Amino acid sequence: MQLSDIATRQELEAFSQRSNGKGAAAVAFNWAFIAAIFWGVALWPNPLTILLGIALLGGRHLAFAALMHDCGHGILFTTPVANDLVGQWLCSYPILSDLHRYAQGHQKHHAHAGTRQDPDLPNYQSYPVSKASFRRKIARDLTGRTGWKALRATWRRGQADLGRAPWNGNALAGHVLVNGALFAVLAMAGHPMLFFMWPAAFLTSYMLIARLRQVAEHGAVPDLFDPDPRENTRTTYVRWWEKLFVAPFHLNYHLEHHYKANVPCYNLKSFHGFLKAKGLYDATDFPNGYGELFRRVVASGEEPPTPATA
Hints:
Elements: H1 9-14, H2 20-43, H3 47-73, H4 80-92, H5 99-112, E1 129-130, H6 131-142, H7 145-160, H8 171-188, H9 197-203, H10 205-218, H11 229-232, H12 240-243, H13 254-259, H14 268-277, H15 290-297, E2 298-299
Parallel strand pairs: 1-2
């Protein structure tokens, strides 16, 4: 079913309205949340608060990825300049990503979702997986093995950009400048060692959270190779504390994003309500929380046999 079958063009355009104020508020909120995490650990420094801080910072990494995602679509702010500058310097570089490279790859995902040409298939095609397989994936994430692999890939891409000025696309230089500035701020506040929670979160909690997010969006869906977004993509209802980690900035409304990719994150929840009221989701099931979701995508019993390749 097409959106034009259930709604007018004017109704749909209302959800695509962009707001500089809402975009700036989202970015400022995430940086303020990060500052609060560092402040809390500085006030009560002990192993438990450090571990909790690293877990929460992993969620803030994902929040930056969500904001970078909207900037990559050109929809967080009203102008290309704002999306490019804020998306790159305040969202992408802090998490060792690059807005423009990410946007190019992500557009291919949208173009080929529901087909075997989807470049993101390796992230979720194997689901449901056995409990043993899922535990191994979690162990790789939390021990840093997945993170080191991502870090090495970032380094290789950065080396390819050497010789270019940071304001002209040298992502590696941008990573160093922005993360160096974060270290400098914490050092001036008298807590330079707290900075190392940031890369620790990148290497561990962020890798796990990013995996859970990818699986929640497309893993073990009704039909991964059906072009209908209701079949190949999932929206999950979340609790407040799940938003701190896996669903910042309405990231859980992923089905809506695939139906209309120019809807900013701050409009996704209302867009979901609109589509539901129009009857688009009468036969669609939405998991209530990530606990229910992962009971579906993690199979019980023995590991399934390895499928034969064509």
